């Protein structure tokens, strides 16, 4: 007879940003499978609702629980919005999220010599300021209610090693590592752990925009010989969200198939 493994996140409420696509959707599905209730947030509200539908809940109205889960539309880069989002989530579930996974992110690739200030600002606003605003709002909600938590920010291996055509993206992702380490130092006394994940190249709509020639070249450089699957990142998020990683904070976990080790 197969042994039933215990659900690792049975009493958790998880807020996932960027939940309408790629890694964020895979993370939402995986956390729900481990027993968490999921607040799925995306700039694209319809995509967030579709994620909630995939989670199996009947509800699809924004901000209304579908089974254990609910969808929210929000732009994480907009001042005041993440704080409002946290209030909405708290009102919906009667508690702050104990797991917060920031997956919302964008690219606006261009070589340094030609990059516009607008492309720089937009990527920093979503990828770095957005994570600052969400991390701050979530930490404030947890501290003021005396709850412990696990905050997981999706950075990138590019934040560590750089990448052609991505000065804005690499800077934003390097910033996420420093932000997360500092948050880990400040929030440990409140029982809140903060870690970042550095994915390599993962097959999602974001990498579908990369020319095939470039993807083929990258794939040849990956020791494991293939792009990652969003599920590979979701597995590590689940570990960092659960008490299995109870003594880990301030870490940057690479999920790259060995690329740039
Ligand atoms: N795919 C990869 O190879 C890879 C590698 C390293 C890191 N990452 C990071 O992982 C995260 C998820 O990437 P993905 O590949 O799943 O991309 P994706 O494009 O499939 O999904 C990103 C999601 O973020 C949402 N989003 C964008 N701007 C937003 C905003 N302002 N507010 C709220 N939501 C917003 C989008 O609507 C989309 O649903 C990103 O932070 C990305 O930088 C991806």
What would you say about this model in short?
By secondary structure, the protein is α/β, with parallel strands linked by helices.
Description:
- The chain is built from nine helices and seven strands.
- It is of the alpha/beta class and 261 residues long.
- It has a single domain (13-57, 65-106, 113-255), classed as NAD(P)-binding Rossmann-like Domain (Rossmann fold, 3-Layer(aba) Sandwich).
- Strands 3-2-1-4-5-6-7 form a seven-stranded parallel sheet, with helices on both faces.
- α2 links the parallel β2 (37-42) and β3 (70-73).
- The chain is globular, with a radius of gyration of 18 Å.
- The mean pLDDT is 94.
- It binds nicotinamide-adenine-dinucleotide.
- Nicotinamide-adenine-dinucleotide binds next to α1, α4 and α7.
List the helices and strands and how they pair.
Blueprint: E1 13-17, H1 22-33, E2 37-42, H2 45-54, E3 70-73, H3 81-93, E4 99-102, H4 117-145, E5 149-154, H5 158-161, H6 167-187, E6 192-199, H7 205-208, H8 212-221, H9 230-241, E7 252-255
Parallel strand pairs: 1-2, 1-4, 2-3, 4-5, 5-6, 6-7
Helix pairs in contact: 1-9, 3-4, 4-6
Bound molecules: nicotinamide-adenine-dinucleotide.
Pathway: Steroid biosynthesis; estrogen biosynthesis; Lipid metabolism; fatty acid biosynthesis; Lipid metabolism; mitochondrial fatty acid beta-oxidation
Organism: Otolemur garnettii
Domain Ketoreductase: 12-205
% residues in beta strands: 5-15%
Which overall shape is indicated by the principal axes computed on the Cα atoms?
globular
Stretches with pLDDT under 50, minimum 5 residues = none
Neighbour order of strands in the largest sheet: 3-2-1-4-5-6-7
Radius of gyration, whole Å: 18 Å
Written as H for each helix and E for each strand, in order along the chain, the element string is: EHEHEHEHEHHEHHHE
* Termini separation: 41 Å
Largest sheet: 7 strands, parallel
Return the CATH class. Answer: Alpha Beta
Predict the CATH topology.
Rossmann fold
Give the tally of structural domains.
1
Q: What is the CATH homology-level superfamily?
A: NAD(P)-binding Rossmann-like Domain
CATH architecture tag: 3-Layer(aba) Sandwich
Protein structure class = alpha/beta
Query: Helix content range of the residues, please?
Result: 40-55%
Average pLDDT over all residues? 94
Q: Which kinds of small molecule does this entry bind, naming each only once? A: nicotinamide-adenine-dinucleotide
DSSP helix count? Answer: 9
User: How many strands?
Assistant: 7
Pathway: Steroid biosynthesis; estrogen biosynthesis; Lipid metabolism; fatty acid biosynthesis; Lipid metabolism; mitochondrial fatty acid beta-oxidation
Keywords: Fatty acid biosynthesis, Fatty acid metabolism, Lipid biosynthesis, Lipid metabolism, Mitochondrion, NAD, Oxidoreductase, Phosphoprotein, Steroid biosynthesis
Subunit structure: Heterotetramer with CBR4; contains two molecules of HSD17B8 and CBR4.
Protein name: (3R)-3-hydroxyacyl-CoA dehydrogenase
């Amino acid at each position: 007879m197969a042994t039933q493994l215990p659900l690792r996140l049975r009493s958790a409420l998880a807020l996932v940003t960027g939940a309408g696509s790629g890694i964020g959707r895979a993370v939402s599905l995986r956390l729900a499978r481990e027993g968490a209730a999921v607040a799925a947030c995306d700039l694209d509200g319809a995509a967030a609702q579709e994620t909630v539908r995939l989670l199996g809940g009947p509800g699809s109205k924004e901000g209304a629980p579908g089974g254990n889960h609910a969808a929210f539309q929000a732009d994480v880069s907009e001042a005041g919005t993440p704080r409002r989002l946290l209030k909405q989530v708290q009102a919906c579930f009667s508690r702050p999220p104990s797991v917060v996974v920031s997956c919302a992110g964008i690219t606006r690739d261009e070589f340094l010599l030609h990059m516009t200030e607008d492309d720089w600002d937009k990527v920093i606003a979503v990828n770095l300021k957005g994570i600052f605003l969400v991390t701050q709002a979530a930490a404030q909600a947890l501290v003021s209610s005396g709850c412990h938590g696990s905050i997981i920010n999706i950075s990138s291996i590019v934040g560590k090693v750089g990448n052609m055509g991505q000065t804005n993206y690499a800077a934003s992702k390097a910033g996420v590592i420093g932000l997360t380490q500092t948050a880990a130092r400040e929030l440990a006394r409140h029982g809140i752990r903060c870690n970042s994940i550095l994915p390599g190249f993962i097959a999602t709509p974001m990498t579908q925009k990369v020319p095939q020639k470039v993807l083929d070249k990258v794939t040849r450089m990956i020791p494991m010989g293939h792009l990652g699957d969003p599920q590979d990142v979701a597995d590590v998020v689940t570990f960092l969200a659960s008490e299995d990683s109870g003594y880990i904070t301030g870490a940057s976990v690479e999920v790259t198939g060995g690329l740039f080790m």
